[in-house]
Amino acid sequence: MKTRIISGAVLLPLLLFFIIYGGLPLHLAVVVISIMGMYEFYKVLSGKILPVHFFGFAMCVFYGVFAQNIVETAGMFSAMTACFIVLLMCYMVLRHKEVDVKDVFITFFGFYYVCFLLMHICLVRNHEYGQYFVWLIFIASFVCDTGAYFTGVTMGKHKLIPELSPKKTIEGSVGGVLWALVASVIFGLAISRVVVFNHISTVVLCAIIGTAGSLLSQIGDLAASAFKRYMGVKDYANLIPGHGGILDRFDSVIVTAPVVYYIMIALL
Amino acid sequence: MKTRIISGAVLLPLLLFFIIYGGLPLHLAVVVISIMGMYEFYKVLSGKILPVHFFGFAMCVFYGVFAQNIVETAGMFSAMTACFIVLLMCYMVLRHKEVDVKDVFITFFGFYYVCFLLMHICLVRNHEYGQYFVWLIFIASFVCDTGAYFTGVTMGKHKLIPELSPKKTIEGSVGGVLWALVASVIFGLAISRVVVFNHISTVVLCAIIGTAGSLLSQIGDLAASAFKRYMGVKDYANLIPGHGGILDRFDSVIVTAPVVYYIMIALL
C-alpha cells in the first residue's frame, strides 16, 4: 500500500502536467502510454511479443498523429480500420507458416481496446470545453477506484464478483460510485461560474458524466481482471511499483475516457 | 464445376438487381449477406455459435442502418466501435464463468472483417459516381477469380502458395490480374462518355482500381484460406452448391469493396 501511494504521488504531477498542457505533449504521452499498454496486453494474451503485434503498434502511432477530432477525421478512422484488417490479412498470407490466427485477433482487438479507447482522453481535451471536462475522466476512474477501496475496507461485507476480483465488495462498488458522484458535483459547482450552457446545468452534466463514468470504470477494472484471469496472471506487468503495469493502472480510464467524450458530444 | 456455374447463374441476376437498384434494398441485402457471413466465420472460428457472437450480429444490423456515407457518419462509427468494446467487456464480466476470451476477440474481429468491409459495397454505391464504379468491385474480384482459374488450368505451372491454396499457380494469379485489368479498361472505355473528370481519365482510374482491387482480392481469397486452414476446414459452409459458403464466395469482394471505395475517395 505504501509503495502504491508513493509511486502514485510521483506519477500524479506528471499526469497533471500533460492534462493541463494538452495539445501535442498530451497526444505523445497517450501514444506512449498506449504502446506500453498494448505491449503488456499482447505479451499477456499472446504469451510473448510477436511480429504481428507490430501492426498494432504502427496503427497506434498512426492513429495518434491524426486523432485530433474523431468527428472530422473519422473518415480516416474507417479507412484506417480497413487498412489494418487488409494489412493483417497480407501478413497472414505471407507468414502463413508461423502466424497463429489467434494472435491476429489479439493484435486487432488490442489496438482498439487500449489505444483507440485511451485516445479519447485527447479527444475530450481537444473539445471546446475539454480543458474542464477532461478532469472528469480521472475523477470518475481514480476517485471511484480509491473511494471503492476505502469504502470496501471500512464497511465491505458482500463480495461483488469473487471469481474475478476476490477483494471487491458490493458496498465498495456502490461507495466508489457515490464518491465519484460527490466529487463530480463538487467539480461541477467549481466550474459552474466559468462553464455555462443554456440547455443544461453544468452541475447536472458533471453528475451524469461522473455517475456513468464511475459505473463503467468498474466494468473496465473487472474486464481487465477477466483478461488476466483468462491467462492466469495477477498483473499485466510490474512497471509501476504497487500498481502493476500501465494497464493495471489505466484499465478503468480506458473505459471512462470514451464515456465522458460521447456523453459530452451527445449533451453539448 | 457444373453445379458451380449453374448456381452462379442463379445468383448472378439477384446480385445484379440489388446493385442496379441500390438504396435500401442493397443495404438490406448486404446486411443479410454480412450476417450469414459472420455466422459462418463465427461458427468456423469458435467451433459453434455462442451468445457472445450476437453482439457482432447486433452491431451488423446497427451499422447497416446508418452506413450511408462513412465520412458523414464516421463519428458514429467511432462511437459504435467504443460501444462494441464496452458491451463485450460488460458481457465478459457478467458471464465470466462461461465466456472464453478468445471468442470475444473472434466476435470483435468477425464484425469488421465481414460486415464492416462488405458494407463498403453500399458506400461505393451511395457515392456520386457509385452507380458506375460499384461494378469495379465485382470486375476486380469475380473476373480476377475466374480469369485466374482458367489461366491456371490452361498454363499454370508454378504453385503460388500450396500450403494455403494447393491449386493456385503464379501464372493463374498473374493472369487473373491481367484479365481484371483488361475488363476494367473496357469498362472504363464504356463509361468514359458519361463519366468525365477534369483531373483524371476515367479509363486510367478504372485501370488503377481494377489492378489494385484484383491484386488485393487474391489476398482476401488466400487469407480466407488461412482462416479455414487454421481451423482445418475446406469451406466455411456448403450453402451455395459448388461455391461453399457465403464467405467462400465473397472472400475476395470483402477486400475489393474497401479498395474501390478508398481509391475513389482519394482520387475523385
Would you give an account of this structure?
Chain A has 268 residues and is mainly α. In chain A, 77% of the residues lie in helices and 0% in strands. The first copy, chain A, contains 11 helices and no strands. In chain A, helix 2 (23-46) packs antiparallel against helix 5 and helix 6 packs across helix 7 (130-155). The longest helix of chain A is centred in the C-terminal third of the chain and has 30 residues, at 202-231. The radius of gyration of chain A is 19 Å and the shape is globular.
Largest interface: A-B, 49 and 49 residues
Oligomer: homodimer
Helix content of chain A: over 70%
Helix-strand string of chain A = HHHHHHHHHHH
How big is the Rg of chain A?
A: 19 Å
Task: State mean pLDDT of chain A (0 to 100 scale).
Answer: 90
Distance between the termini of chain A: 40 Å
Structural class, from secondary structure content of chain A?
mainly alpha
Continuous helix count of chain A: 11
Count of strand segments of chain A: 0
Shape of chain A: globular
Low-confidence stretches of chain A: none
How does the major sheet of chain A shape up?
none
> Which band does the percent of strand residues of chain A land in?
under 5%
SSE map:
2 copies of one chain form a homodimer.
Chain A: H1 2-21, H2 23-46, H3 53-66, H4 70-94, H5 101-118, H6 120-126, H7 130-155, H8 170-191, H9 202-231, H10 246-250, H11 253-267
Helix pairs in contact in A: 2-3, 2-5, 2-6, 3-4, 3-5, 5-11, 6-7, 6-11, 7-8, 7-9, 7-11, 8-9, 9-11
